[in-house]
Design brief:
Blueprint lengths: L1 E9 L2 E8 L9 H11 L1 H8 L10 E5 L8 E6 L4 E2 L3 H13 L11 E8 L2 E8 L4 E4 L3 E12 L3 E9 L3 E6 L12 H18 L13 E7 L10 E7 L3 E2 L5 H13 L8 E5 L5 E13 L2 E10 L2 E9 L15
Parallel strand pairs: 2-3, 4-6, 11-12, 13-15
Antiparallel strand pairs: 1-2, 1-18, 3-4, 4-5, 6-7, 7-8, 8-17, 9-10, 9-17, 10-11, 12-13, 13-14, 15-16, 16-17
Length: about 325
Amino acid sequence: MILSTVEMHTGGEPTRIVVDGWPRFSGKTLLDKRREARERFDHLRRGLMLEPRGHDGMYGALLVEPDHPEADLAVLFMHNEGYSTMCGHATVALARWAVDSGRVARRETEAETVVRLQCPCGLVTARVAADGTVRFESVPAFAYALDRIAPTRTWGPVTVDIAYGGAFYAFLSADSIGLDLRSSPMRAIVDAGEEITEAVAKAVPIVHADEPDLAFLYGTILTDGGNGVGGTPSRNVCIFAGRQIDRSPTGSGVTARMALQVARREAKPDDERLFESCTGAVFSGQVVREATPVGGRKAVIVEVGGRAHQTGEARFRFDDDDPLKEGFSLGQ
């Protein structure tokens, strides 16, 4: 078997776009395909994401046939542990690739080309400028819980906010547990993110009003305590899928952070904020309008902006006699 991919990165965070060679799905809806990928084809995910073809920080985007009538493309997001419901950095990469490759025809007479991407969390609309800059409107985002307490082994009770931006995240300031996002060792930040995610998942049940498949805590985002106003980015680091580090500012995390700011009356429609990752890459976040409430919670539509770049193309073999064809991980 041979799988063909396009390799991209957004602020240093990889996106391996699978463009050819994946077996056909029998499922009709995108969530059906997501379940089928877990049940029938997970060996291919592991083989592409893990060593020797990938690494513990690899991220993937599998193109599949859309079932949404307005979608140009449909995608399943994957990483070292499984499949996520939304990914902002991969959306930025996919939108740019779709236009640069001609998969979606560039609108030469307009400032931006619209790309409609069907994700497991819903339809995401992206706009690609002539210089490759991408901005996208994600699904309705909302604050799920504020100031919730979760007991941890290392720091005792920690206080977190939980918000949804296509996936659920726990948020807390790094200095609340004695860490600094610019000077603390990354291993300490990763250890904290993993432990806090596990603790919050046990302490706070997650429910999504519309789709049970989306109802889980995806990761923890540690912030510098800033709010990204005045042209000064607020740094955050997202730890997800156990110990995976997002090198980008995390598009779905930016979306969720903006929903939290609205819930705390720190932001309103048209306000723009800047958020920075551990590589120095910057995403913008702007509340563009209110949305229909989700499960009785006030929701907003957030526009996220960023840039992605292509790094190469690849053809990966899966030989039947290769004992490591399904990948391996040495851990971190």
